[in-house]
Design brief:
With 393 residues, the protein is of the alpha+beta class. The protein has 14 helices and 9 strands.
């Protein structure tokens, strides 16, 4: 029954897109009405139509159908990978004349250091964890140890019923998590070795990427002005994934600066209270030709984007602070940011980072290798497809 309902939904969306693509018309009496021209309300006789909403039915149908196709592909690929994994383990276990369960026990056996879990080992885990968080959130390293521990308590979901010092409980939780990660990594490393020795052909078809009609507009860009490949990124200054994506995009630009144009557009999310004003501040910096320097500062200080910080960044970037403050206080760049938001939403884009490569839509954080694969497909005249291994970048 579940499969029937899912298939019915797919067919409904398919036919919806098909009819939308043919300017979906319906008959009302002797009158033929185009869907975008359909009257959906009246105020004192004045008609309101779909087109008045800045809402394109055809685009929305296509976007939602693509989203469903990607979701189904991800489910199918996940199940396929799991089955391949089981068959590989069975094959290897048979070679060793043992059961798959016994093989997994052997793979998961802990090192002497892990079994002992001595103080030095536990303290090392703690330090590594602190360093890892500090790299992602620079301000973390500047906190006192007590503040760090209370932050870790929330991150690790530690309740108040623990016994002993908080640091000890934090370390205990980290050891538990580390063991779980280690078991996963050991299994992955083992399977990687087996895969390298096995002829595996995956013929499951990857969905084509959706092409959206979103322009680069007149937003700030890096690279070649008339490049054949234009990459537009919609981002939010308080989005941690956007910050990570910036690094990947700059690496890509470094490799292809003569053939790529990288355009930045704003999509501050409503859930991030300082994202919109930060976007306006960056546009104010652009008025003085310092957008990218200011942009970098915002991503480096994602947890400090209040008005005073934004003005301090202007000073640090060497801007005319009087002119910058006047721009920010007056809201002069608000329409520019709101235009970016409207263009993204009209296309169906609601999350960040969102990347468009010659219009082909890539959602979320992704790898440099995958972006290069898309560009290679475009240059060869092929339609690029979704990632082979969704969820792993």
């Amino acid at each position: 029954m579940k499969k029937i309902l899912l298939w019915s939904l797919v067919m409904f969306l398919f036919f919806s897109v098909t009819y939308a693509g043919k300017s979906y018309e319906r008959t009302k009496g002797n009158e033929v009405v185009n869907s975008q021209d359909t009257v959906i309300a009246r105020i004192d006789g004045e008609e309101i139509r779909f087109s008045d909403l800045e809402y394109d039915l055809q685009k929305r149908y296509k976007f939602e159908l693509h989203t469903l196709q990607v979701k189904l592909y991800k489910e199918k690929r996940s199940k396929l990978d799991k089955l391949i994994e089981e068959k590989l383990l069975e094959k290897e276990a048979k070679k060793k004349n043992m059961t798959p369960d016994a093989l997994m026990t052997l793979i998961n056996s802990e090192t002497a250091e892990e079994k002992q879990g001595g103080n030095a080992y536990r303290e090392t885990l703690y330090r590594e964890y602190i360093d890892k968080i500090s790299k992602g959130f620079p301000g973390f390293s500047e906190m006192s140890e007590d503040t760090q521990l209370n932050s870790l308590k929330r991150m690790l979901d530690i309740k108040n019923d623990f016994k002993g010092p908080l640091k000890q409980e934090v370390i205990n939780r980290m050891v538990e998590r580390s063991r779980g990660f280690n078991l996963h990594n050991k299994k992955e490393d083992f399977l990687k070795e087996i895969r390298a020795e096995t002829d595996i052909e995956i013929t499951l078809e990857r969905p084509e990427l959706l092409r959206l009609d979103v322009q680069a507009d007149d937003d700030p860009y890096l690279g070649a002005k008339d490049a054949k490949i234009t990459l537009v990124v919609f981002a939010d200054y308080q989005c941690s994934f956007c910050s990570k994506a910036q690094s990947t995009l700059k690496d890509l630009l470094g490799k292809r600066k003569d053939t790529l144009k990288l355009v930045f557009r704003d999509l501050p999310l409503a859930s991030h209270k300082n994202a919109k004003i930060a976007a306006e501040a960056a546009e104010c910096a652009d008025e003085q030709g310092k957008f990218w320097e200011y942009n970098d500062l915002l991503f480096e200080n994602q947890h400090s984007l209040g008005i005073e910080s934004l003005k301090e960044f202007a000073k640090n970037t060497g801007l005319d602070t009087k002119e910058f403050n006047n721009c920010l206080n007056s809201g002069r760049q608000t329409p520019e940011v709101e235009k970016d938001i409207a263009d993204a939403q009209l296309a169906g884009i609601m999350g960040t980072p969102a990347i468009l490569i010659n219009g082909y839509y890539v959602s979320g954080l992704t790898s440099l290798a995958y972006l290069e694969e898309i560009i290679d497909d475009i240059e060869r005249g092929r339609i690029p497809r979704v990632r082979k291994d969704l969820g792993k970048g």
